[in-house]
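Priority: medium. Attachment 1 of 2:
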C-alpha cells in the first residue's frame, strides 16, 4: 500500500520544473527582508552547541536574534556557548533573573536571561537558563515564543543540529505563502563516534531519511497532508504558532504539532533544497529507545487527536489524513506482524514456502524501489551526479540497513503499538505521555 506514496513522489519529480522553483519567493525574501529569530533549545549539548550556534550565526540570510534555551544543563553547555560568543566579540547588554510563574507557559521557576550583542554582525544573542529544573523542549519552546520572540518568523533548531549556510534562504521563503504555518528541509545523519554501532546507525538513518524525506514526504505533499514535522530545524510563522502552540502530550511532539496545525486549516511546506546535519544515537541501545519512542507516536496521536483532525478537515485533505493515519499505525503494524511471523509459519507448514519466498522477495523489491526513488531525489537536490562508484556505496548502505535493521524496525513497530495500547487501556497514558517531548 506504500505504492500510493511512490506514485505521488514520482509524479512530483516528473512535474518538477527545471531550475529553482523558489526563485520568485526568494526574490520576495530579499526584497522585503523579513526578520527572523533562531531558537536553540539545548540540554547537555557541550559536544555540539558550538557547531550548531556557529552554523546559525553564519547563515547567508541570518537571524536578527538568537535565543539559546539552556534547560538546566549539568554539563559544560554554558561555557561552550560563551567561549564561542567571545570569538565573535560579544558585548554584554543586560543580565536579569525573572520568576516565570505568571508568564505564559511558565514552569514556576527562576530563569536567568543574559542579552548580548554581536556588533560586527548586528545580531542579538539572548541566553536563557532554567535555574531550578529541566522542563523539556516543548515547554521551553512555547515559553520563548510567547514571551521573547518579537519577529514575524522564527526557527526552532536543535542544539545538536548543523545548518547548511543557505538553509534559511531556502526554507524561510515558503512561509511567505498564504496560510503556511511551518516549513522545513531535509536532515542528513552526522556521525560523532567511530565505533561499529555508530556506523550501522549512520547507514540506517541515511537510508531512512532518503526514503522518508525524498519519497514519503514528497508523496504526502502531493496528497496534501504532511504527517509530521522535521523537529531538528523548523521555521514557523510566529502568529500562527501562538494560535496553535506545540502540544506536550505525546512522545511525538512533531507529529502532534503537524496534525494540530493542519487541523486548524494551516499548511506545512517542505523545501527540497534546504539541508541540515543532525547527530544520531551512538549505540544500538539508544537507537532502540529512539525507535520505540518514535514508534509510539502514531498510535498516541491517533488516540489523542485523530477524531478531531478528521472532523476538522474536508475533502481531499480529510481523505489524505485518514490514509496517513491508517498507513503509519494499523497497516504498518499488521504488515510487521505478518513479516515476522512468516518464517515460523513456513517452518510449521502452515504457509506454503513458495508464498513465503514471494512475500519476502516482494518486500525487498519494494524497499529497494523506495530507496531508489529517495536516493534519486537526494542526489538531484544535492546537485550531486549519480556516479557509478557513489551508486555502489549507496547500494552498500541500503544492504546494511535492510539486512541488519529492517526487521528490528518491524519488532519496534509491534512492541511500541502494544505498549501504547496498554497505556490507553490501563489509563496510564495521562501520567506517562504528558511532558515527554
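Attachment 2 of 2:
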Amino acid at each position: 500500500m506504500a505504492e500510493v506514496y511512490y506514485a505521488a513522489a514520482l509524479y512530483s519529480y516528473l512535474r518538477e520544473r527545471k531550475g529553482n522553483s523558489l526563485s520568485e519567493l526568494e526574490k520576495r525574501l530579499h526584497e522585503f527582508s523579513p526578520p527572523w529569530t533562531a531558537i536553540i533549545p539545548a540540554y547537555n549539548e557541550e559536544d555540539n552547541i558550538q557547531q550548531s550556534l556557529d552554523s546559525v550565526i553564519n547563515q547567508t540570510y541570518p537571524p536578527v536574534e538568537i535565543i539559546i534555551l539552556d534547560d538546566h544543563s549539568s554539563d559544560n553547555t554554558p561555557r561552550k556557548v560563551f567561549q564561542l560568543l567571545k570569538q565573535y566579540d560579544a558585548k554584554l547588554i543586560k543580565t536579569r533573573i525573572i520568576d516565570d510563574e505568571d508568564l505564559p507557559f511558565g514552569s514556576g521557576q527562576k530563569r536567568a536571561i543574559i542579552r548580548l550583542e554581536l556588533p560586527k554582525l548586528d545580531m542579538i544573542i539572548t541566553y536563557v537558563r532554567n535555574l531550578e529544573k529541566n522542563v523539556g523542549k516543548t515547554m521551553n519552546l512555547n515559553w520563548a515564543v510567547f514571551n521573547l520572540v518579537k519577529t514575524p518568523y522564527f526557527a526552532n533548531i536543535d542544539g545538536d543540529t548543523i545548518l547548511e549556510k543557505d538553509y534559511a534562504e531556502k526554507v524561510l521563503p515558503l512561509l511567505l505563502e498564504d496560510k503556511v504555518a511551518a516549513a522545513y528541509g531535509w536532515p542528513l545523519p552526522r556521525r560523532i563516534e567511530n565505533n561499529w554501532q555508530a556506523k550501522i546507525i549512520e547507514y540506517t538513518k541515511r537510508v531512512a531519511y532518503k526514503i522518508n524525506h525524498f519519497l514519503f514526504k514528497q508523496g504526502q505533499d502531493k496528497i496534501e497532508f504532511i504527517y509530521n514535522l522535521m523537529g531538528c530545524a523548523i521555521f514557523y510563522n510566529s502568529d500562527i504558532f501562538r494560535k496553535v502552540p506545540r502540544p506536550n502530550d505525546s512522545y511525538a511532539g512533531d507529529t502532534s504539532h503537524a496534525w494540530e496545525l493542519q487541523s486548524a486549516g494551516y499548511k506545512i511546506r517542505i523545501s527540497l533544497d534546504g539541508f541540515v546535519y543532525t547527530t544520531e544515537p551512538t549505540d544500538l541501545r539508544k537507537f532502540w529507545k529512539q525507535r520505540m519512542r518514535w514508534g509510539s507516536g502514531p498510535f498516541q496521536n491517533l488516540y489523542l487527536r485523530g477524531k478531531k483532525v478528521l472532523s476538522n478537515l474536508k475533502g481531499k485533505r480529510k481523505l489524505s489524513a485518514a490514509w496517513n493515519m491508517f498507513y503509519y499505525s494499523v497497516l504498518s503494524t499488521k504488515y510487521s506482524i505478518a513479516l515476522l511471523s512468516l518464517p515460523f509459519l513456513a517452518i510449521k507448514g502452515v504457509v506454503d514456502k513458495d508464498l513465503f519466498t514471494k512475500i519476502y522477495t516482494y518486500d525487498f523489491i519494494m524497499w529497494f524501489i523506495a530507496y531508489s526513488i529517495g536516493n534519486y531525489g537526494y542526489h538531484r537536490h544535492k546537485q550531486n551526479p549519480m556516479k557509478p562508484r557513489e551508486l555502489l556505496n549507496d547500494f552498500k548502505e541500503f544492504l546494511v540497513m535492510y539486512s541488519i535493521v529492517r526487521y528490528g524496525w518491524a519488532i519496534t513497530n509491534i512492541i511500541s503499538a502494544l505498549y501504547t495500547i496498554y497505556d490507553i487501556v490501563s489509563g496510564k497514558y495521562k501520567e506517562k505521555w504528558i511532558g515527554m517531548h
